[in-house]
Amino acid sequence: MAQHTNGSARSHSSATPTATSRKVRRRGSIDVVDAKVAVDLATAQTYSENVFLFVPNLIGYTRIILAGLSLHFMSYHPKYCTLLYGVSCLLDAVDGQAARALGQTSKFGAVLDMVTDRCTTSCLLCYLSSAYPSYAIVFQFLIALDFSSHYMHMYSSLVTGSRSHKLVTSDVSRILWYYYNDSRTLFFMCAGNELFFVSLYLMKWIQTPISASLSPRAASFLPAILLALTWPELMAVLSFPVCLVKNVINVVQLWKASKILVGVDLAERAAARKKENAEEEKEA
Hints:
- This protein is mostly helical.
- It has 13 helices and 2 strands, in the order H-H-E-E-H-H-H-H-H-H-H-H-H-H-H.
- A two-stranded antiparallel sheet has the order 1-2.
- The longest helix is centred in the C-terminal third of the chain and has 53 residues, at 231-283.
- The radius of gyration is 24 Å and the shape is globular.
- It starts with a helix and ends with a helix.
């Protein structure tokens, strides 16, 4: 999408040279398109290359529908809810691959994917807040951390001219570099995080211990402490470390983004002072 949009803007600008500086401005490593020009391009896009209808974005819409349906069943039908929520989360690993395979990567798709992730998880955490009122403050904190860290990270990426919030270099943060640049690590962390929250959800519905679902022979191979747990409790125990690490990464992401934004502020203030001094010297 970026190349198509920017290319169209440059082509139009060549016909009206005086408007070039208004329509496309250079900032860092990306071309910044004027908002009015972008709206006009999106309105005039043809069916043959309609970003809204790119396959990965259609997958994104499907994720939203499935997540919405899972929320509908969340309070009274755990099987349907878990199935729909799980499929919606798994499709998160498909849309990116489809975008790269079909050459349909887009800024809209990247933001749609991230917003869907944030909203879906937050809705589940809202339900968990009501299901576990004693821990409501914890779930509220996780929602706030998730949104704030990703918003500030996205904004810091934009102001520094990055084409994607996932393009983090190791000299900025080695932790975030490992997290974003290895697709397997990213999928494992996100899946484990969601699995923990889904396990907490299922714990409210399933109280049957594991021992009741196994044959005596199979149960003999497991320690008694595991047999006393339910399957959701076991999944929660196994996925909790992943959830913990994921939220530590969110804290790191929030802190690094804050430092980047402060650094940009300092650089801009220094540049403004330098400009003022230069003007004063010129007048003198």
